[in-house]
Structures
1.
Amino acid sequence: MNNIKENLINKCVLAKKAGKLLAVSTGEARNNALLAMADSLEKNEKLILEANAKDIEKAKENGIKEAMVDRLMLNSQRIKGISDAMRKVAALPDPLGSGEVWTRPNGLMIRKVKVPLGNIAIIYESRPNVTADAVCLCIKSGNTVFLRGGKEAFFSNTAIISALREGLEKSGFSGDLIQTPDDTSRETATALMTLSGYVDLLIPRGGKSLIRSVVDNATVPVIETGAGNCHVYVEKTADLEMAARIVKNAKMQRPSVCNAAENLLVDREIANDFLPVIKKVLEGTELRGCEETVGIIDVASATEEDFFTEYDDYIMSLKVVDGYKEAVEHINVHSTGHSEAIITRNTEAADYFTANIDSAAVYVNASTRFTDGEEFGFGAEIGISTQRLHARGPMGLSEMTTVKYIVVGNGQTRG
Amino acid sequence: MNNIKENLINKCVLAKKAGKLLAVSTGEARNNALLAMADSLEKNEKLILEANAKDIEKAKENGIKEAMVDRLMLNSQRIKGISDAMRKVAALPDPLGSGEVWTRPNGLMIRKVKVPLGNIAIIYESRPNVTADAVCLCIKSGNTVFLRGGKEAFFSNTAIISALREGLEKSGFSGDLIQTPDDTSRETATALMTLSGYVDLLIPRGGKSLIRSVVDNATVPVIETGAGNCHVYVEKTADLEMAARIVKNAKMQRPSVCNAAENLLVDREIANDFLPVIKKVLEGTELRGCEETVGIIDVASATEEDFFTEYDDYIMSLKVVDGYKEAVEHINVHSTGHSEAIITRNTEAADYFTANIDSAAVYVNASTRFTDGEEFGFGAEIGISTQRLHARGPMGLSEMTTVKYIVVGNGQTRG
């Protein structure tokens, strides 16, 4: 075993040791920890902003794009935003404990209780708000957390983690509940992905290449998040005015996020009417159409590859289809299984679509942009799972737990 | 891509194609499929028994142990047992559909529905009853199934699968819902473990070496099952007569199964009284004790390795501990996280034990042998998960599903 791995394992052992008390703590104690961490963030504002300034300076030196620099930047208001978000999570219901209870004919009483998953590792990119966000969701759900942020935010993350640890200690927990590697090298990230037995779940939060690297290299359990090649399908009976509003929202309201739409399917019967309208509505978005689309409106040609592409940008591919069955077939082949919408007034089409589309979230007459823990009413989310096992769709606090069966008897043996 | 993998992928594609109808079928249609498969098994009894005779003959030629030959053997009564078990599963509640419904302040109505996981692969060893058992649970939960049984049962499994397919076709489904490789080579098994995108879940059912091989080689999602280094801890306030009965049951009623106990911990205060009793009660079981145990009763010495060992045999390791905190610490270090029991009359000890033991099932005053889908009231089980993600403990039909969110609006867009 090399030194990098040994060093990470030592940190995980510290976390696991500290985690024992956290796992059996009351919801109230965990909420107090969140409130103390929020206070500590605000109290340490000056140190955090100084550290952040170093990251910003380095980013500018390295010629990082303006939009990225903005994602990295903290100020008083943003820190207040982060600590207020932590206080909001503290107010959410406790995801641990409770659960069904039943008694078997032999008198055994079985209780299914929710318990923490254990040690959750998060590998993420530049945004320093993810640091506090991930810590807060993990601690609330009784899990320890191993944070590996991007190198661009190294100083900011170090300062934030230090403030959060201080808060934990103030509330009576050990600062060891939060761990982070000593550097942001690729080797460290790769080693973290293979700590079987020390990392109970790894969640990558970031772009496609990060997620691909985790899925390819990890031997610890992973939840894949955020791949979103989402579709909006406008069925021939649709209210076209509503359809245009929804398509515009799904594509243009925030094109860089995973629940933004990348592909528009339109029924042949309405293509001549609807495509010219949508071209106008999506002004500012580059359109790439199938052969039939190109015959109706003046847009570039889409390749088969376009239909598989998550642009995360002001680009959309368009395809004319022959009714809802073809739409469903096209989507199930090309989608990443995140979110898809049908716009229709035909109940039969809506029912067929929702039953047969194989994605985490399927919409009728609404924007795909709603796939989100807050919007679903979960209060918060650690990511949006596009896999089938354990969690699918927005992952809230409840998805950060596992179960334990507590069985109470009075001497029962098996016959 | 080599030929083995290509051949398996072709079979998975057939399964996925046939699976589309299954995934949206009614519970009644799936139950009818189970009943038709049960009938078909009985109708094909002669062919199945002829095939089984070939396997038995080969096993005897190869000098396979008597106990293994018995596990392999079918007869009229055993086939009736298998088909009756299928009818029982048909009568269980439908695990698909239903789920919570809620409405958001913006009017979006969200429905969380249970849907099939997809294509479930099972790699298992010699017992041919697993073939029908796995098919029946997968089809009931809307999943297609890829069966890779042991080479010892090749002819039996081929005949059973053929009968089950015939039943599926009779009930209006495609026989393609059940797939199996053309051979039982190791290469085929290994290829099956790496069919990302074609196998949605792989469940190994069998001994330690099979499970280890799957965990080491699989790139598809896996649920680890059946590793059971289970403990019984007799606390100083225990009813010693009850404790002796439970220890005997947990160790000796069926030592080869994963929920049998392998380790006995005894409080120091009662060790002088209890150990001589337990030596008599466990007659026929080889005992291996810690230093203190060896000072009290005449048994062999246990090594540290013994405390990590799942014997699956008439062997048990014994350790004297200094109260429930030490017992919990010892168990959490040495256990595989399957099932552990405390025998006690002290509520404080019981509460500490159930809260702090980190295993799928934790018992107070009952035998570990109850960790089982039937015994828990789930009606059936596909295995007992010792991992934390997706399912933990007995996996019933409900654990063979994932979720989909269906969201119905009237034009909502995100602001």
Note: The radius of gyration of chain A is 24 Å.
2.
Amino acid sequence: MIYFQCDYVEGCHPKILEKLTETNLEQTPGYGVDRYCESARKKIQTACGLPEAEVHFLVGGTQTNLTVIAALLRPWQGVLSAETGHINCHETGAIEASGHKVLSLPSQDGTITGAQVREYCREHFGSGIKEHTVQPGMVYISHPTENGTLYTKAQLTELKNACREYGLPLFIDGARLGYGLTSPDSDLSLQDIARLSDVFYIGGTKCGAMFGEAVVAANPALAPDFRYMIKQRGGMLAKGRLMGIQFDVLFTDNLYFSICEKAVRQALEIREAFCQAGMPLYGESHTNQQFVMLTQGQMDRLGEKYAYEIWGPGGDGRTIVRFCTSWATRDEDVEALKKDIKALKM
Amino acid sequence: MIYFQCDYVEGCHPKILEKLTETNLEQTPGYGVDRYCESARKKIQTACGLPEAEVHFLVGGTQTNLTVIAALLRPWQGVLSAETGHINCHETGAIEASGHKVLSLPSQDGTITGAQVREYCREHFGSGIKEHTVQPGMVYISHPTENGTLYTKAQLTELKNACREYGLPLFIDGARLGYGLTSPDSDLSLQDIARLSDVFYIGGTKCGAMFGEAVVAANPALAPDFRYMIKQRGGMLAKGRLMGIQFDVLFTDNLYFSICEKAVRQALEIREAFCQAGMPLYGESHTNQQFVMLTQGQMDRLGEKYAYEIWGPGGDGRTIVRFCTSWATRDEDVEALKKDIKALKM
Amino acid sequence: MIYFQCDYVEGCHPKILEKLTETNLEQTPGYGVDRYCESARKKIQTACGLPEAEVHFLVGGTQTNLTVIAALLRPWQGVLSAETGHINCHETGAIEASGHKVLSLPSQDGTITGAQVREYCREHFGSGIKEHTVQPGMVYISHPTENGTLYTKAQLTELKNACREYGLPLFIDGARLGYGLTSPDSDLSLQDIARLSDVFYIGGTKCGAMFGEAVVAANPALAPDFRYMIKQRGGMLAKGRLMGIQFDVLFTDNLYFSICEKAVRQALEIREAFCQAGMPLYGESHTNQQFVMLTQGQMDRLGEKYAYEIWGPGGDGRTIVRFCTSWATRDEDVEALKKDIKALKM
Amino acid sequence: MIYFQCDYVEGCHPKILEKLTETNLEQTPGYGVDRYCESARKKIQTACGLPEAEVHFLVGGTQTNLTVIAALLRPWQGVLSAETGHINCHETGAIEASGHKVLSLPSQDGTITGAQVREYCREHFGSGIKEHTVQPGMVYISHPTENGTLYTKAQLTELKNACREYGLPLFIDGARLGYGLTSPDSDLSLQDIARLSDVFYIGGTKCGAMFGEAVVAANPALAPDFRYMIKQRGGMLAKGRLMGIQFDVLFTDNLYFSICEKAVRQALEIREAFCQAGMPLYGESHTNQQFVMLTQGQMDRLGEKYAYEIWGPGGDGRTIVRFCTSWATRDEDVEALKKDIKALKM
């Protein structure tokens, strides 16, 4: 069975494992203040064009989201998010467990707009009994979105402007950031992301690391004492260097971007194969996740060799199915899949 | 500089790294349902003599403590703990952040007794206005304690009996469990721990793993749906197999116990060296942590070559200092330290 | 200005004030264990046909909702509610502040159905990754709903059956219960409400009392130690008897129902007046809240003498406006309003 | 039976009841924005010498404490309090339920000192691993304390200075403030309290009102959007005017202070009677609570006619017992008690 189910079925990029092995018996202080973390921080600051930014390493995405959001909000505030946002759908109420409502905005493709933020805030702050409803306190987006779609620089700028008007910090969940920034469809750079958000994170788990997400806080004043929050929410790894080493490797010689770019290229080839075979695509993803609507017969035949993810009903008896590539996807597996897709047509 | 500061300054046991390397590009499903986790679970169940127990893997100790405790308690309940307990002192209020008060009991050496639990419960449940105070809902202990001390089988049995009388689950924080069970001073086996607690965890981070703690719930009914809690609190690792692989290796060929036993032996040698040199020890630790009271001069001289941890003021102008060994401590470093301790005397 | 804005613009029914005055300098123990609370409890148990039910008095609706819901749910659970439910819309995230997500279900008229509950649960519990989403743990409805609509006995029975199938407690917010039970449109009695829910509350604040809501728990096992929760969430009134006295008066000589019935009759007369005058009504309310769609001109003319509440945009340039009656509404004010409505038509 | 058990066994001062009756059927807007609340606010601002202060009315003490403290703290912070503080002992973990640890400081008489605050902060902020422990975020005191003792102006000034040095807001729980300010032993005025704290509350429940506490925030910037918090935590009374009316009456013609002063005079007479009778007093209370150590025989004899509160064991076979007076205590009851105390001696 070949897995195209998600982007976390393997371990980590071999260069990371080499470095972990090489440094394994070195002795370093705990909790992320070692020299590997320091080196990784510097490389990330440089890559972001933010030499003063704070950089913290956390183990996983849900943990990162709940820690950042709880650090930014006051108790009476909620977080605006697309209804499809990961924090709203797939984190078992982690945000609510920290006391905050997710204020969901309708979304077709996973993105939200500056206009939506403005309208929500206008209605809330204009209401005579505004204190009977949750105050919008920040905005959460994911880039790429859960649907694989991307914000353009214009859209993100517009969203940031709306946030600024209402004093709302903008937080970008970059669990798959590498796959977004290296899409041929993207006009955003890492420096744009850093400049147009208040806090964001660079996903490691899905982009070549064993685990680990790097939180970048352009404006550290927003979350003073953030290390307390990491510790309190259970996110402070004793052997913090494990994440420092991983991000240090990922941000050396452009590794993070080159391995993600490869995965996107592979995903677009799969997309093209489905197109050519006349199968309807679901949504406009130009990143490492591809969504296609298959008949049961098509699913069965592909399912003999490939693992994919069921996304939901697609209408007309079809099912929306997700195929993911990753830094670890092998070209020969992509070739095989493309051939088998082509065969479906006949 | 040679580190005796704590037991998490290195990476992991080489056998673990070998296995991680060997399996690195294998594809497995995420979130802890892969075959490595399954295999590790079976080995742990067998070692505990609890074939029906639930076994879950979490990344770190604070995360484990807050997740288990929040899963067991109802909102109006608190957790009884020694005042020196890790949850009371060194987790940044993680338990309170999940809504529960730590009900601290006085302790000289890090342990608490069945008598203390009975007295607390008798006073609480006997009070006419009991609902104005927090209801004791469970008991937390660490074994070994934060002071390196150990419960005897008689003490633990007595504590468990007191818990049973008041319907309180007993949770054992085993962050350093391996170092406790392999102490020559211990009359408790892993099976005793499993039998005399309701939930406990087998520490990996400090006992040979890169990271990871294995929660063993003898009575799964106490925390139904525990996987929801793990996910909600940010503890569900995407690549769950990383922990399965580590615990699988640790519970193969007795590795967990043999590497911990070695560390305890080294620690007791260091203890003996301090004794011989006439330096007063602090407390009765027979595990991998040793506490000794040093003068400033002694600290300075040892500090030239060795990193240790300042524990607090010791009276008479002395300072309590902690020396830790671990699975990774090298015999030659222990020998050097012993020699330098001996030299202090002269 | 005559207020039809809401049902809490006056103090309390004069009989309550008389009794408060008469007993003012009596001495009683605090916290709701006095003889007035005891007497009120007995009367409510009898009226509900549940002699074993627990009855607790809390000060207000939001407090009651958050206390009951937090007492019933486990941390990984959420509460199913109509998207229009008070807990979802107008309580500033009180439920989320206690750690739980409100799982909203679409609703046209404020009610939800057994079928919706079944479908939600089927999808959740049938999912392979159910622990990545919030577990439905109970169902919240309000009766009458926020839109003034009513459940029929058949609908409520069906909803209760669905809850039972999935082990979900059903909680009924009865902030305006008196106005629901005395509607000519209602086929439900207080005993039906008691029998078809697990916990519900009898609203006092909006139905004749100064303040106070009486929580009735048919199955006390669902929320053992509920008095702890009341105290912890700040709802335990020192002079608890103030609520005992109020509910004792309300449940003497059918007062609660007779004063609510009068208000409903007045509301239906106002409804009829709007109908006759050809103004479109919004929704099918047969309780003390009436919703009508007015033009700006109509709003301005009525607004000269009457206070009403703006509910939202109504389409066609009209606005949905709420007129409320209450136990305190005077017949002459209703007559005046009816005349002025009639005049609008001409 | 005559109650000296606590200061909330009666209803309210008759002048309040008169005003509630007089205004009962008036119509006012809800939620505390009516003219009675407005008038009460102005009178309180004037009495405090803080015309710009925000004044909010909440129903009870626990609710007030939890709402204020949760509004002031960030998630990683705790509140410093005497170990005897009400929030630490008698609120069922309400502060912890809002996510914050109570950082208790030892206290003999219920007060804490500036030196204690400085020492705690110095140790915390000076620690290398400070983020592993809860950050002190504010200071809570009660005045009078739970033991009936009082801060002097010098002590309070010193405490405030310590708070200022570390940027900690000082919050004063004034549940019995009236009884403190009118003690002959007090050198503090209401204006001093207002000037030397950041937030405090004027207790109504125990000082003449049916219920209600008036929160005064000298520096509204500390808790912006405080009305959201009141609503979210269930403390926003629909008929807010009920509290406005009560505080308006209490702050008219010095009523609040004159009725409290009378109670203190009565309490000091009782104290004197115990002294004269040679019974050992417990602590130095010069307010409306008096603590005395009685033998079982003395308790039994007084218990035939009087209700008092058991405070705890007093040593030497004696029990510490509390006698409380209040605004409602009748002089004839005090005389009778004094006579019976005198009789005990013989």
Note: The mean pLDDT of chain B is 96.
